[in-house]
Amino acid sequence: MRPVSTVLLAMTACLPASLWAQSLHEVIDREIERQAAVPLSPKCDDATFMRRVYLDLAGRIPASDEVRQFLADEEAQKREKLIDRLLAGDDYPRRMQEFLAATLLERRTDTKVPDPQWERYLRRSIAENKPWNQLVGELLFTEPATDKQPQPPEKFLLVSGREDMHQKTQDVARLLLGRDIMCSQCHDHPTVEDYKQADYFGLFTYLQETSDKAFAEFESVFVPGKNSTGPRLPGGTVIDIPKFEKGQEAEAEKYRPRLLLAGDLPTAENPLFKRNAANRFWCVMMGRGLVHPLDLHHRGNPPSHPELLDALADEFAESGFDVKHLLSEIALSDAYQRSSQLPEGVDESDAPIASYRAAIPKPLTAEQMAWAVMQATGNLPALLAVPAPAKSEFSYNNYINGRIDEAPDNLADAMTLFVGVFSNPPGEPEVEFNAAVGHSLFLMNEPLILDWLKPQSGNLVDLLTKIDDPAAIAEALYLSVLTRLPSQEERAEVEQHLQRFQSRRTEALGELAWALIASAEFRSNH
Amino acid sequence: MSQHQCIAAQHDWSRRQVLGALAGGAVTGTVGLANLLEPAIAEEIRKQQRQVLFIWLDGGMSQLESWDPKPNTEFGGPFRAIPTSVPGVHFSELVPETAKRMDKLAVIRTMSTKDENHSTGVPRVQRGDPKNRGVTYPFLGSALAKLRPPENNLPPYVWIKPGRGGFIWQDAGFLGAKYGALALGEGKPPVHIHRSKSISDETDDARQQLRRNINSRYRQRRRSSDIDAYESSYDMALQLMQRRDLFDDSLLSPKDVERYGTHPLGRHLLQARRLLEAGVQFVKVNSYHWDTHGDNFNMHLDLVPQIDRPFAAIIDDLGERGMLDNVLVVLMSEFGRTPKINSRVGRDHWPEAWSLVLAGCGIKRGVVVGKTTPNGAWCDADEYDIGHLFHTVFHCLGIDAAETEYLNNGQPLPIAHDDCRPIREVMA
Fold first, then answer.
1. pTM for the complete prediction?
2. What are the boundaries of each domain within chain A?
3. Residue range B285-295: average pLDDT?
4. Which of B18, B152, B154, B214 to probe by mutation at the A interface, max A CB count within 10 Å?
5. How many Cβ pairs within 8 Å bridge chains A and B?
6. Which end of chain B has a smaller Cβ tally under 10 Å, C or N?
7. Cβ <8 Å between A400 and B229
8. DSSP states of A126-161
9. CATH code for B8-426?
10. What are the angstrom distances between the C-alpha of A406 and each of A95, A273, A370, A399?
11. Given this model, what pLDDT does residue A11 score?
């Protein structure tokens, strides 16, 4: 248990006394329960919890052995221990790097910083639990190397287009401040009162490279007249940038606007920054932002649970922007551990999604889908055994269009294929479930998937062919794919299917595994 | 091919950064209503379902060498005008087959679109040019997928094009990726439409039934929308796989192949007919290279018959099948071509006064709307912009553009340019 957090002590002046001395996960539950109609859904069972927390913190589903062990464990604190173990584990940095590729970069690419360099940088930062404000500061400004090669963190701004200052302005506003201010490039936002053109250009100016550019003139297309601003964060004041003469270059360097932004934006004093970060980490765990859509923070779109968002943002800042602490507190809450089934007798319409009355199922990301399918079918070890080619010839487009016949035989190429199929196009946020016909056609007919469901040394179907008892088959199958035990009905279904197709038992086993992989239960982190 | 010709297709590739993403289609979330009803009623519903055939000649077809000939005038060029099946209406001699069907068509001769630039022209026109609203508007096919989700499980927007296929999400603009186009490169189906030979019908039924059973157990006391969406993505996939025959060229009658022609535009229009017959709501057929900055007349002599014959064939076929009442046909380019003939015997881009052809659902038959000045250079009647065309299209499909709007993150947006109106003269 974490001791009483200092931020909450500091906040007690403005919060009800009842919040005194509560840890963050208790605050979460208090706030969710305070607003929700009763009954709320009960805690989910151990198997569901395990799959959920593995997908969220390790990016994969647990192996059968891990499930069996966890289910058999009688320790009262086993969920808490599992959370700690996953946050300390080797999968966590990889999972967070995959998550950030989809959220910070939105799968846009730039070749100036090669992907492996960027991935290494992120994984290392995450492994050492680098404070989030520090990481964001590095993304906003990292001094170029002496050989002028871009540093890995620069990839964040490079994907906006090298020279496109407007795209950079919009990306920083949307991804780091939670404000989609695109409209304000040309005028104050027509329907969102808080999004002003002056704020847009304040940020635009802040992103400039040299101090002599720290000033922008702009004019609204609706209201005639010239306006101007220096570097300024939305809602803040313009920072003062001196004028420099020739010969003062060294001094001027210190006033490069983007360098200053890297220090001024990711701070505990910037409510937009900490609320946006807290909301996005909340969303990845809980399936929906307290402010939703994630990039529409403004007065007209208030948080579903305002006090909760404040508490998350403040404690996140007070903890020194400790990402592991924030994720851990969310995972410890009852809200996170609730069942995704609605309470008995409660209709969908009486449990609005933003009430968090039941857990919200999250679609598996492309990477989670890849790890899950490889793990579930037992083909991961074989794929891992093939060393990744130094420079892969595999391309998703070429494979899909029949220009490469060889299916991926190693993990990296298989991942490329899954990301090609299941990810949204570059620049499209991946928050809502996108059920495209291409996904289902892929699972139905891709030769690689069908191949993985044929018996090959030590994979799932290979193991199942060696079991005679249908009940044991059902158990092994469900533990491996859906990472839970089958119900009576499901055991019977497996038995019936095997009986019906006893003349071709091996194929029948593959079909059973396929059906589980193609199911809505598998496709979602429920 | 002239060295002066822009290769418009190349512009197009780089412009849209086409990802050859695997086929994916919009999932509308609606259950295949028509599948649940008695066949006769289903047939009736299918008839009432309005469909669109959108033929896009990328670049600009010369109005003077097609729908608005001006023989023996300053800019008229070498070709003659010929009478059409509507007395008093003449077309260029390059479109003899279409001329015989003029009584089924409407021609607008006063399109005036003010934009002569390829790089903005294609998206501007196909998105309906709804002013700068700070958002990217959907192409027409995506717009209809959103405004009129079809009541079958077929992909709502199919794009037949030369080159590579895939799921072209860019067309959806702010509506979001799922309203994008399912593109059939060279008219071929998505790769994963073919079931492995190792899986028999019986096996496939069995595995799909298992999948449905698991889903119905999972569904208990859960919100249904994501599960419905996932289920219907399988329904759509199965529907496409069942209709593999739609892509089997061996099933085509040699007579049809001959009537439509074996060049890409002919084959693709014949493919479009099959998809429309199957009930696909919006089929776009693309042809590239209509860009005759040099050697305009020889190139038109070569190009125009490639649209004339298959276009006449599909008008006949839709008519014979009773489909012209519910299929709206649009045949157009980005712009017309300059009346003035340049030093390379070419015609350049000319958005000031050009022609397009409409037919079918909601369209008057045998009318010409507007006229140009005697030398063909300017409009000599009411001018129509793309916004007018979009209003007309929406009207013909039963969508009231004055009453219907999009909602983008709370921002209401008109579905068509709000300074424009439908073109009454072409509406039945």
1. 0.79
2. 164-266, 361-526
3. 92
4. B214
5. 182
6. N
7. no
8. HHTT--HHHHHHHHH--PPPTT-PPPGGGHHHHTT-
9. 3.40.720
10. 28, 46, 18, 8
11. 47
